[in-house]
Design a protein that fits this description.
The structure is a single chain. The protein starts with a helix and ends in a 19-residue tail after the last helix. Strand 14, helix 12 (about 345-350) and strand 15 (about 355-360) form a beta-alpha-beta unit. About 35% of the residues lie in helices and about 15% in strands. By secondary structure, the protein is α/β, with parallel strands linked by helices.
Length: about 450
Amino acid sequence: MPRSLEQWFAHQGQLHPQAIDLGLTRLRAVLERLEWRQPSVPVITVAGTNGKGSVAAYCAQVLAAAGHRVGTFTSPHLRDYRERIRVHDRLVTTDELLRAFERIETARVGVGSDAISLTFFEYNALAAFLIFDAARLDAWVLEVGLGGRLDAVNVVDATVAVVVSIGLDHQEFLGETRDAIAREKAGIFRAGHVAVLGSREMPPVLADAAVALGAMPKRLGSEFDYAREVSGWSYRGRRWDLSGLPTPALLGDTQFANAATALAALEELAAGLPVSAAAVAQGLTSVRLVGRFQVIVPGGGKPSWILDVAHNADAARVLAENLRALPIGGRTLAVCGILADKDAAAIGAEVGECFDAWWLASIEGVRGTSGAVLKDRIAGHVSGPLSVAPDIAAACAAASAAARAGDRIVAFGSFNTVGPALDWLESQGLLPRTSLPEYTDAPRKF
């Protein structure tokens, strides 16, 4: 078997002929060999085109503030694979990962020639399930990787299923229309359980799918809602009526809807996992999520930085709204890298008027594209001069060199953009220390 994490990642990356191959058959077969059982604690599963990372973070942080032990599985990671699996808001340890990988591999290979192939993401999800089982948790928060119905996370039965938003993304896997995508995401709903719908513009087919399945839809603007107030905001749901809530720590107007959606999920678990108003306030104000309109102000006359994944048109629209709501006296410069399978023209059209100059970076890998190709795809949809850089680090360096006091630089377009941008900022001494400690509470033996 591989010995180091790097060897394991290389191994996992070559087990299956396709990087993305949606389906639950392979996972269920491996879980059966592992004699795995559904968790005995509540599970919140979060899907959505955009906003699911924020909702998952709010759920986990509020539960932690209430004293509950929470495991959180998210994807992808920005800089450290261990970001994907957190126990009590601490990174999983390398040793725990290695033990989980060894156990999965033994089950995957089986006896004789009946080995089961797994994708990289499926291996991630299985490791999270085993680690959470061993950690004596009070709740799991699982973020869907892609879609819902056939995503690896969906082998776990959700106590509360959340769909944050529906937009056009990953059409090659999920369908060409919002209705088709909604049906795929509705696959995480379970009969007899609540399905939280976190947008006022949800396609009606989503609530229809919940009802047809026997799930109970809980819709923003109907069964729950929020209102902005002169100071703070309020939440109203089936059980909770909370006023004077503090502004969420994550920036942007859309975060009020995301926070309300998280509260809508949490109040459904309140009978077994009580959460006080004080815990809600603490969770809302202490939540951190790297790369989602993350503002870094180095000081000393250096330009400020904003990091935002914004990898589809809907997310780019929110980025543009957030930038307009945070005006500055200087210029706004773009460091942009977008994967080849994304609609770069649509992303550019949403944010095109926000930037005074662009540095377009190449992204490596199977889904990557060059800065020159990206320039061709967005030209005509954006304003300002367009420069090409060989990679994200070079684009960051060039934008930083061109920036003046009072300017800001926005790195966006992909997780593959924000991660390297964070690396570059750290190399320049511009990144505040935000890393999480490892989870050190002694787990049960696998």
